[in-house]
Write a structure and sequence with these properties.
Number of helices: 10
Order of helices and strands: EEEEHHHEEEEEHHEEHHEEEEHHEHE
Shape: elongated
Length: 372
């Protein structure tokens, strides 16, 4: 995001007070389009305490800005910057001169490549307007006062708060050796034509938010808006200080995202030839080989013969085969015994004493077959 600001405007007037306790940066005569940092403080305290407190904080905030807020402003960086500026105020603490009660409010606004950061303490305010058919209020800081609490709780209306006697009682302020937290707001909601305003409470002493929205109407130029605001400040009893910042252009740089395209590839399959059983090439009614596959139609007769032979093998044992007649011959008992000895010899483990060689069974002599 690239934010281009128009020419900032402002005023810094003493009003009906004897001393000027408001401080700001930059000064109205020094404002230029390249500015991105804006500060307004409203001092308070006996003697010259308010003037010293406000000017000390403003000076510290802009002098240490680059050291603490670069390269990218953030909430944490702002807290460190504020703490550094507060140490300058702590060094001015002098109880004997009665300066211990001096203090100041703070409004802080900076623009950067991701939007803006706004922070405040006390009852000085920050406004973000968006002119249109009806001027919208994008953001407004909430005062750290008892009056603001009464408005939120419904005890006071915004109109009644303008004349409330305790409206200047603060809940937070920047004072020596005291630490009140700032309210920090960050946003990237910014458009060309928007207005930002930082001001002390003397500017809005007799104005509600709705009145300000009317003043910053879209049909008025920034100069006309500021002149109308200054006329309302003539009724104020306080110092009145304001910085008015128009937004000229907002360029949003689109990030080029690399699109990843997934290409589907079919899995590569490798042909694996079927394993052919050499002992039984006929399985489940068909014959498979590496080169061809035949159907059961051609081998139907072969299947039937194989099935009948298998059934005979399952029902017949070796001894039964020997007892069956073969071409008119019958097995001899001596032959049966020798066959059994041979089978027993094959099933016995190797004899280690004979170097792993199987022992040869002693066969009985005699005729094995005789003719009926």
């Amino acid at each position: 995001m690239k934010i281009k600001l128009g020419q900032p405007l402002g005023f810094w007037e003493i009003g009906k007070r004897d001393t000027q306790q408001d401080s700001l940066y930059p000064l109205p005569q020094d404002l230029k389009e390249e500015d991105t940092l804006f500060i307004v403080c409203d001092g308070m305290g006996g003697h010259s305490g308010g003037e010293i407190a406000s000017s000390t904080i403003v000076k510290g905030m802009h002098e240490y800005y680059d050291a603490f807020m670069n390269p990218q402003p953030s909430s944490e960086r702002f807290r460190n910057l504020l703490e550094r500026a507060r140490t300058n105020l702590d060094s001015l603490y002098n109880e004997e001169q009665g300066e211990q009660q001096m203090g100041t409010t703070l409004t802080f606004l900076c623009f950067h490549e991701n939007g803006y950061l706004a922070a405040h303490i006390g009852d000085s305010r920050i406004y973000h307007f968006r002119p249109g058919r009806i001027t919208g209020l994008v953001y407004r800081s909430k005062d750290h006062t008892q009056t603001q609490e009464f408005i939120e709780s419904g005890i006071l209306s915004p109109i009644a708060a303008l004349t409330y006697t305790g409206r200047n009682i603060l809940d937070r302020a920047i004072m020596p050796r005291s630490r009140h937290e700032a309210t920090i707001y960050e946003s990237d909601d910014i458009e060309a034509g928007d207005y930002f305003m930082l001001c002390s409470d003397g500017v809005i002493e007799n104005l509600t938010d709705e009145m300000l929205q009317f003043i910053f109407a879209a049909y008025r130029s920034p100069e006309e808006c500021l002149e109308l605001l200054k006329k309302h400040c003539e009724m104020s009893s306080d110092n009145h200080t304001c910085l008015f910042i128009p937004v000229k252009e907002v360029i949003i740089e689109e990030k080029k995202e690399t699109e990843t395209v997934e290409v589907y590839e079919e899995p590569k399959t490798m042909f694996v030839p079927p394993v052919v059983d050499v002992d039984s090439s006929i399985d489940d009614g068909f014959i498979e080989s590496q080169d061809e596959r035949t159907t059961t139609t051609e081998y139907e007769t072969v299947d039937q013969e194989v099935e009948s032979n298998n059934e005979m093998e399952l029902e017949t044992t070796d001894d039964d085969l020997l007892l069956q007649s073969t071409d008119g011959f019958q097995p001899d008992e001596t032959l049966l015994r020798n066959i059994k000895k041979m089978k027993k010899s094959e099933s016995e483990p190797e004899n280690k004493a004979n170097n792993g060689e199987k022992s040869t069974p002693q066969l009985d002599n005699g005729p094995y077959w005789y003719e009926d």
